[in-house]
Amino acid sequence: MSIFVSDKCTGCGLCIKHCPFAAIELRDKKAFILDSCTLCGACVSICPVEAISISRKEESDNLGEYQDIWVFGELSDGEPVPVVYELIGEGRKLADKLNQKLGLILAGTNLSGLCKELIDYGVDKIYMIDKEELGVYNDEYYTQLVTELIRTYKPAVLLLGATAIGRSLGPRVAARVRTGLTADCTGLDIDPRSGDLLQTRPAFGGNIMATIVCKNHRPQMATVRPGVMKAAAKVSGYQGEIIQHDLDLSQVRLKSRVLETVKEIREGINLGEAEIIVAGGRGLGSKENFKILKELADTLGGTVAASRAAVDNGWIGQEYQVGQTGTTVAPRIYIACGISGAVQHIVGMKLSDIIIAINRDPEAPIFKYATYGLVGDLFEIIPIMIRKLKEGISLQEVGLR
Amino acid sequence: MNIIVCMKQVPDTNEVKIDKKTNTLMRQGVRSIINPYDLHAIEEALRLREKMGGKVTVISMGPLQVIESLKEAVSMGVDEVILLSDRAFAGADTLATSYTLSRAIDKIGNVDLILCGKQAIDGDTAQVGPGIAEHLDIAHVTYVEKIIDIDEKEITVKRLVDDGYQIIKAELPVLLTVLKEINEPRLPSIRGILRSREMDDIPVWTADDLDIDRNLIGLNGSPTQVISVDTPQLDVEARIFEGDYQTQVDCLLKALMEQKVL
Lengths: 401, 262
Known about the structure:
Largest sheet of chain A: 7 strands, parallel
CATH class of chain B: Alpha Beta
Oligomer: heterodimer
CATH topology of chain B: Rossmann fold
Low-confidence stretches of chain A: none
Number of domains of chain B: 1
Helix content of chain A: 25-40%
Strand order of the largest sheet of chain A: 11-15-10-5-8-9-16
Strand order of the largest sheet of chain B: 11-10-9-12-8-1-6-7-13
Number of helices of chain A: 11
Mean pLDDT of chain B: 90
CATH superfamily of chain B: HUPs
Low-confidence stretches of chain B: none
Structural class of chain B: alpha/beta
Number of helices of chain B: 6
Number of strands of chain B: 15
Distance between the termini of chain B: 60 Å
Largest sheet of chain B: 9 strands, mixed
Strand content of chain A: 25-35%
């Protein structure tokens, strides 16, 4: 066991309340750590008397050799995906804070035009690998190339978009170079003294926010959620250099091949821009019952959405999920139907102008966050709403005049 | 076909509520469940076994309470389960976890296919699957929506990407992480439940049972560390309508009209 409770413990019990894993008990008026502890550190940061500590082996060699902030330039059909510009914007800020350079990895075919274009977004160094075999993304070639660039040029930080490709490539590279990787970050900062990248991300199903560091390994790697960071602006005439790196791919024996790539526009929903959202949760009970929400949404000219519980139950697609791990929304009106109000959901919709909660359970936490609450059976209340809205509500009817 | 499924027991994070007064998580009564995505991985493994013969082994890393979830996997019909449990594994981040699991898979040996859920609903990292594949020096494919074709040597799958999909062919052994869309997991069978009840000697492997570098497991093998944890601050005041449903709806519509949002 490498977590310790010192004699300073006053038995206040604050850590017990804050432990996400129910792994602390009070024994002999002191905190006692149970075997279910995952060493997450929540208790260490909350303890008012600094009585709890987690010990770990600290080994770090030559971290100072690692300099600069790097961004992985993910391409789709030869064009950077939008998150690349966001990473460049964020990477620029971090690099300036450290007074270091911003680098970009660009791999594919016919890249010279693109390189010149991207420098104008404030990139100091582009590490370019131009090879026919790299035209279509492949985990094995790309793992090899990113690893080789890391070993040759030693960046302090490598940021990737938390896209399908970034989240496939990132863990593969991190495992090969044996460094830390933090998934799906929503906030980044850097400690200019230690050079530690402070990586913030939702954890525990989005119910808490954790800040994570990778003190003793380099590069510090993170995938960053698309759409969170501000995209870099174009700075015409920015001075950057292009470093062409030659890569011998013959040593990689491909074990997988992409036979076909198909672009597919999925059903167009953009929760982030919806003005009115009607969201359903566990209380809906089934896939079919989402029809009634759809009818209400259509009547109001809004969009249907869902809580994580409904998505996890397979009643509706993940693209409809509102919450910390889904989409963050801020519509004019948010109607939460049969949603109890887990923190991770609240966090994703609390910026809505008006929140209306419909729930059978008057004790449901959602009522604590709603602007208006209706207590009762949503399968009775919603049809009444639909009928009144369709009939056209007159001011008289609702007693305004 | 020798198939391994990597399973994680997770708290049912959908049930986590917050104590408004203390602004802390209320985790009383939060159940431990099989990570929902992993149920789809188990189901896919069972279907492949039904089609091609072979064996399905579910492995998991965690405290002894994970045995309950492993028994649930047995009741669904898997052949064998193995728990990796040791204080030395605690505090593992995704790198140390994937290394530890890869050592267990190496010990099992002669594996054709490794299946994982897309991600676990508590951490949502989706990093352990690809990490295992790298440690084993085999290929991996994430976000698999469908297995199109499989024989003893190769597999063809449909893999979702952000703006469409890819058809990928890989040689075995390979590691796949699967989406919910891949199948509908079965419920435990009566026979399975009976078998899981009779199973009282679930193998528990410790670090000593594995050919493992102790510097690469648990907290010491984890490059990342959590330095602070915050509960998001929430603060709003609600107005709860009273009366029958008609009245409540009228009050709501009135309020919305007063605010000129309707």
